[in-house]
Amino acid sequence: MLLREDDFWKPVLTTRQILNGEDFIAVVVYDEEGDWQALGAADFTDDDIDVVSVEEILALDDSLTTLPDMQLGEVVERESVEGAWTTA
After folding, report:
1. Closest Cα to residue 10, out of 37, 41, 28, 32?
2. What global pTM score does this model have?
3. Distance separating alpha carbons of residues 79 and 18, to the nearest angstrom
4. Coil, helix or strand for 76?
5. What digits encode the pLDDT tens for the residues 56-84?
6. Contact of 39 with 27, CB cutoff 8 Å
7. Would you place residue 27 in the very low, low, confident or very high pLDDT band (cuts 50, 70, 90)?
């Protein structure tokens, strides 16, 4: 599944640090249930978790449109904002 082709209203789990621009999206998970997680490089707690839509996360970081076609349970990561996505 390509994130950019999923339902734009579908929820994406992320962190407040990413939403506030304090961290970048370093890890993307397409979990076994077909849900998305866009997580940062920095440590976070349960209190930092937030939920946005696919549309909002794509607007926040348009490099997510370059994610590979992901299968259920797949994880990709990158070292920097400019880095290439690789399978974890």
Report:
1. 37
2. 0.94
3. 15
4. strand
5. 999 999 999 999 999 999 999 999 999 99
6. yes
7. very high
The CB-side HSE value for 35 (13 A sphere, CA atoms) comes to 9
Residues constituting the chain:
88
Q: What does the pLDDT average to over 35-57?
A: 97
Classify residue 59 by burial, with Cβ atoms within 10 Å: 0-12, 13-18, 19+. Answer: exposed
**5 CB-near residues (< 8 Å, 6+ apart):** none
C-alpha span between 66 and 51 (Å, rounded): 21
Alpha helix positions (H), the chain:
16-19, 54-60
User: What tokens were used for 72?
Assistant: 């259920």
